[in-house]
Amino acid sequence: MRRVFILRAGAEPETLAVEGRAGVWSVARGRELDKAEVVRLPDGRLSALLSTGRQICGRVVARPHGDVEVSSARGNFRFGLADPLHDRVGHAPDAHLGAAAEEEVRALMPGRVIEVAVRAGDEVKSGALLLVLEAMKMQNEIRAERAGVVADLAVTAGEAVEGGARLLTLQSVSG
Amino acid sequence: MKLLVANRGEIALRIFRACRDLGLETVAVFSDADRAAPHVAAADYAVRLGPAPARESYLSIPRLLEAARQTGATLVHPGYGFLSENAAFARACRDAGLTFVGPPAESIEAMGSKTAARLRMQRAGVPIVPGLVAPASGPADVAAFAREAGYPILLKAAGGGGGKGMRRVDSDAELPAALERVSSEAAAAFADGSVYAEKLIEKPRHIEVQVVADGRGAVAAVGERECSLQRRHQKVVEECPSPVVSSQLREGLSTAAISAARAAAYVSCGTVEFLLGPDGSFYFLEMNTRLQVEHPVTEEVWGVDLAAEMISIALGEPLSFDAERLAPRGHAIECRLYAEDPHRGFAPSPGRIEALRLPQGPGIRNDVGVESGSVIPIDYDPMLGKLIVHAADRPAAVSRLARALSEYEILGVETTLPLFRALVTDAEFRDAAFDVQWLDRRLSEGLLQHHPPSAGEVLLGALGQTEPAAQGTPEEAKGARSIWRQTARRESLRGGFR
Questions:
Q1: Cβ–Cβ under 8 Å, residues B144 and B298
Q2: Are B420 and B402 in contact (CB under 8 A)?
Q3: A172 min Cα distance to partner chain B (Å)
Q4: Rg (chain B; Cα; Å)
Q5: Which of B353, B414, B458 should one mutate to test binding to chain A, selecting the residue with the greatest count of A CBs within 10 A?
Q6: Interface confidence (ipTM) of the complex
Q7: Do B465 and A3 touch (CB under 8 A)?
Q8: Helical H runs in B235-372?
Q9: How far apart are CA A88 and CA A90, in angstroms?
């Protein structure tokens, strides 16, 4: 069995090839090749034994958009690890450009809009306060992650919003 | 005898454990969001309070009293948060013939209004920070005070606590908007919009003294805690003892804390918070008339079971220890684990915990209110629990904390673990060279970095994604040939397992 992945963990995507069977695998990453013996532990984690004798243990969970999340002794790491087809779909150049021209600001969780600090048409700098959302008893200031023009203000102060609801759209200043 | 805990999460479990240690039966209460929560499953009896919103469940005094009546509970412990510093609740318990495991309603009232508490402390000879003695009537009021005391000043909600409803103001220009924000936050959170102002002591440390008072007039101070590591006035990491408090300073703090408790006719466990200036001067901040989140570090170092002590004091017992003979042993550090995403400005991260593995071994204590599979509801405070480590001295405790963090696994919700992992490698944290503003500053300087996965983690990810061989252990893959299965089959044919 052989599988190829596109790894997106650093600046540039890399190709990763996994080949093997029955717990013994060789993994090629660029020019580096390593052999690993792997077992699944009773609690679902994987333990890999490398040819150097090094042992590493962690849990691997598939995430949306071709990502995986790996927990290890150093913490949790989420990175892109999809087969080449799904990687291409997820990282199409068109989709990327669209996101750059316009950005939707959404509520991360259900809550109530306490304050709307901007009006439609306002030009805001990166870091400017857009809204204050109350959730889990905390007032969370939602700030612009980049400069832009406020378009399509979808909420008013006092309104309850669902998690994932669009609050407003930020358009590029040049756009 | 039954004790009802009017709370949820890790603190309900902590108090249930104290009850078991003392031979008391336990009563849990729960909202619709918490039927499957660990605190319910740990209790001998449980009563549904109502829907998820706290106002209709954990904050409903009539429903809590009814739950006590139904189950025959005679003791009520409020935990922290919710109704723990609500004098009306303490009084309602007393009027219903229940024993409130906490201070008398009058002591809660005496310390509940910060402005009144400051006046009381001033009269008792406890040093206080210069500030407005009455709640601000408007910006002009505060501006006049600021001209006298000098900026920066701090606006604080009179009914607030735990860092909620506080704001720094550096100039007259910022004042009106800040005042309005604090007032509206206070009105929403504490149903009291009054705000007072005080001079901001620059680069202070937050030091608090644990006091324990019985109903027979004995008041003891059980050392201090270092709580300077705060993010936006919310405690994140607490230590015992403070690395900067000498035994001489401890004596001064203890004397002031005991005076404060006596001035409030305090009974039960409580905490007197102080600001400690770089010059060693200290000022009364407020008194928390409840068991604190961070009580375990004191328990570990001073060997006093504060949760059990509260219960026995409520039952009329004297202090279980001789305050003169108490001595600190080693150093303890507590990390508060919140379901918050440190990489997104600590936004709450509700959801389902997919995997949870807690650290173990010498000097490790986990006070945790969730388990693998738990759903973190959006209705309550996002604290999951606390990791407490204890070792012979501070450097050993920091090393032990790093070790514990390497064993800690939690997946499914984002947590504050990355913050603690960053802290244990930070030189200034290791040197204990911090004040209450330090963490916010270090966070803005980039304390939290996105680390790329190591080669090993990438390899694990790839193997985890490669179906199906990595899905099973070699033993399982061999199936029926497994020695265990062969043995089981042989034994069952022989009738050996009957």
A1: no
A2: no
A3: 22
A4: 25
A5: B458
A6: 0.81
A7: yes
A8: 247-263, 295-302, 306-314
A9: 5
How many angstroms separate the CA atoms of B272 and B218, rounded?
16
CA–CA distances in Å: residue B189 to residues A15, B139, B488, B493:
52, 21, 61, 67
- Tell me the pTM: 0.81
Cβ proximity of B195 and B179 under 8 Å: yes
The closest alpha carbon to B464, from A88, A74, A72, belongs to: A72
Average pLDDT over residues B466-482: 49
- Does residue B177 belong to the interface with chain A, where contact is any CB pair within 8 Å? no
Q: What is the mean pLDDT of residues B44-53?
A: 97
pLDDT tens digits, B136-151? 888 888 999 999 888 9
Ranges of each domain in chain A: 2-89, 100-172
> Could A46 and B407 be called an inter-chain contact, meaning their C-beta atoms sit closer than 8 Å?
no
Residue type, B224: E
Exposure letters A77-102 (e unless 16+ CB within 10 A, then b): bebbbbeeeebeebbeeeeeeeeeee
Cα gap B5→B24, rounded to integer Å: 12
Nearest to B24 by CA among B92, B87, B67, B74: B74
Fill in the DSSP letter of residue B98.
Answer: P
* Residues A7 and A29 sit within 8 Å (Cβ to Cβ): yes
Encode B30-65 in three state secondary structure.
EEHHHCCCHHHHCCCEEEEEECCCHHHCCCCHHHHH
Asked if B392 reaches chain A (Cβ–Cβ under 8 Å), the answer is no
Q: Output the CA–CA distances (angstroms, integers) from residue B252 to B209, B276, B281, in the order listed.
A: 11, 12, 10
Its CATH class, for the domain covering A2-89, is: alpha beta
CATH number of A100-172: 2.40.50.100
* CB-count burial class (<10 Å; 0-12, 13-18, 19+) for A154: middle
pLDDT at B482: 55
